[in-house]
Amino acid sequence: MNNGRVAICLVALLYLFLCGVTAAVGADREKIVAMITWRGDTPAELGFMDGLTGYGYNVHFVKYPADRSIEKLAAAVAALENNPVDLIYVFGTTATKHVLRHITTIPVVFNIVTRPVESGIIDSWSSSGNNATGVSSMVPVIHQLETLKKVIDFKTMGIIYNPREQNSVIQRDIVKDLEKRLNFKLYDFEVEPGEDIDKSLAGLTGALDAVFLPSDSMVKTYGKKITGLLNTLHIPTLAAMEDMVIQDGALMGLVPEYYQLGRLAAVKADAIFSSNAPDTIPTSTLDYFKITVNMNTARMIGINIPTSILVMADKIMR
C-alpha cells in the first residue's frame, strides 16, 4: 500500500470516528422532560424551557397539567412510573411532595416551593437526601411586611390562606411569629376547596388595616374575587405572588420573578444531565426580589404610595 492510500484510509477512519463522536454527543443532548404543573403554565415554566434550550439540549417536553386536582396528579405519576423520562420538573409544594412519595429513581427538579425544608421535601438546602433538587420562591416574610409598613403602619392584619396547603400554613405561622416584633395583631381567614368564598370571607371588614395574601394556589385561583372584595372595603393588600398585583389588583408585592426562577431551575437540570446526582446539587433561591405596585388600586382605595417605594419599584401598574 503506497503512502497516498495510507493517507486516504487514515482520513476516512478519522472522518468515521468524528461522525461517531458527533452522533454520540448529539444523542446525549436529546432529553425527555416531564413537566407537572399544579395551576397551569406560568412564566416559571417558560424560563425553564428557555434555559434548557439555551444550554443546547434538544428536549421533548411532555406536559402533565394537574389543574389543582389530586386525581390528575396521581394519573400523571402513574403514567411516569410506566413510561420513565430523563427528568421531571414539578411546580409547587403539593405536587412536589406527591411526586417524591411515589417516584424515587427519576431525577426531579422542583420549582416555586416556598419552604422546601420545613415542608419535608428536602433534608437541607445543601443536600436533599433524595432524588430531587430545585428552586425555592421564598422571600423573607419579614422583608415583605416591612415593605408594607413603609406604606401603611398597620396594627391589624388579616391573612387569607388554604389550611390544607402546607406551604400556606408555614407562611401563616411565620407572619404570626412577627406580631410582637412589628406591633400588629393577626386575624386568620381560611379558604378551602369547595367552600363558598363569600362565606369564608364574611368576617372581613374595613376595620382591618391590611391583608396579606401568601403564595397559595387556592388564593390565586380566587384572586380577582378576593382582591375585588378587599378593594371595595378599601383594605390594602400585600401579595406574595406578582400575578396577584398585575392581574388581580392587589396593592403591592415584594416578590420573586417567576421567569428567573425557571431559568435557575434549568441550571439544576443541566447539572443533573452533566452526571451530578440530585442530592449533591444544593437547592437555591434568587438573591434579589422585585417590588411591584398597582397604582390603579392605590388610587381606588385612597392609599398614597411613598416616593421612596416608587423609586425602588421594578414594576408599576398605572
TrEMBL record:
The keyword Signal applies. It comes from the Bacteria. Coiled coil: none annotated. The keyword Signal applies. It holds the Pfam family ABC_sub_bind. CDD domains: PBP1_ABC_unchar_transporter (cd06325). Gene3D superfamilies: 3.40.50.2300. Keywords: Signal. Residues 1-23 form the signal peptide. PANTHER family: ABC TRANSPORTER, SUBSTRATE-BINDING LIPOPROTEIN, ABC TRANSPORTER, SUBSTRATE-BINDING LIPOPROTEIN-RELATED. This is Putative ABC transport system substrate-binding protein. It comes from Desulforhopalus singaporensis. The lineage of its organism: Bacteria, Pseudomonadati, Thermodesulfobacteriota, Desulfobulbia, Desulfobulbales.
